[in-house]
Amino acid sequence: xxxxxxxxxxxxxxxxxxxxxxxxxxxxxxxxxxxxxxxxxxxxxxxxxxxxxxxxxxxxxxxxxxxxxxxxxxxxxxxxxxxxxxxxxxxxxxxxxxxxxxxxxxxxxxxxxxxxxxxxxxxxxxxxxxxxxxxxxxxxxxxxxxxxxxxxxxxxxxxxxxxxxxxxxxxxxxxxxxxxxxxxxxxxxxxxxxxxxxxxxxxxxxxxxxxxxxxxxxxxxxxxxxxxxxxxxxxxxxxxxxxxxxxxxxxxxxxxxxxxxxxxxxxxxxxxxxxxxxxxxxxxxxxxxxxxxxxxxxxxxxxxxxxxxxxxxxxxxxxxxxxxxxxxxxxxxxxxxxxxxxxxxxxxxxxxxx
Length: 354
Ligand code: IPM
Ligand code: MN
Prior knowledge:
10-stranded mixed sheet; Isopropylmalate Dehydrogenase; binds manganese (II) ion; binds 3-isopropylmalic acid
């Protein structure tokens, strides 16, 4: 293959972000040099620190650099004490990127790797291997920044929005993902259509789109039952598609079943842009100590290589993580923390990239 070059906009983020992103970049560069392509990293300021400095968590130059890049690699952003006047966190970039770049898919693999302590009894790798397809631009988050606080100060509302376009495109993505994975070929529609009209509308659209994919099985769960099923029968799932807030909550629940969100990555994908990130927060209490587990960032890097059209290199990173866990070069604790430091984990993964 001819020598390819990609420009990556890197947002190190807040708290443990810079440490785990730097560890993941070590792994990315190892994979790139092994497979003879290049990644040009452009560091971009964004998040809580940028808000404190510029009064803007995503300054226009940063957004411009992100728009120009082949992909965006982002650490966790936001710090609990850095807040907007309305009480929400200032450093959160989700709304700015997800809506600003129309990244309508939030893809979150939930996969149990070898020797990772799971909170579920008697589950082996292979039993838990599914992917969350979280709608990323509407649902209850459509209200982000637009909720109403009554002038009495005694009530507040946020409104959930489900559109036909938004539902069709996310459901189609979910079915295509089930085909691409070629595993159980099953898409679960998770909603609350027993109570809310918006979700009955969503389920109706899901059924319309399902007819376009006769080779893919369908499954239907109300969100409360889905929460139970993720614990009692995680092997039921292959691809799950759901509304934004439900997807936020259930992806953390899924994370808990595979060693905690410290090992979970997410891809935010639209037609023209995408960013890749750990799904957890900036864990400020751990920052600067070199102890944070970078596997979430390393697996986010893996997803970025898939997106950039380098699936072989992506698979090498995943296999290296698996191998390092199998050989106990990396040992994780039940709370998702690791027994070795951030950089040592990156090196253990690098040693297994062939
Ligand atoms: C996530 C995060 C964000 C979200 C927060 C930080 C706003 O929890 O990406 O899952 O709720 O979407
Ligand atoms: Mn979340």
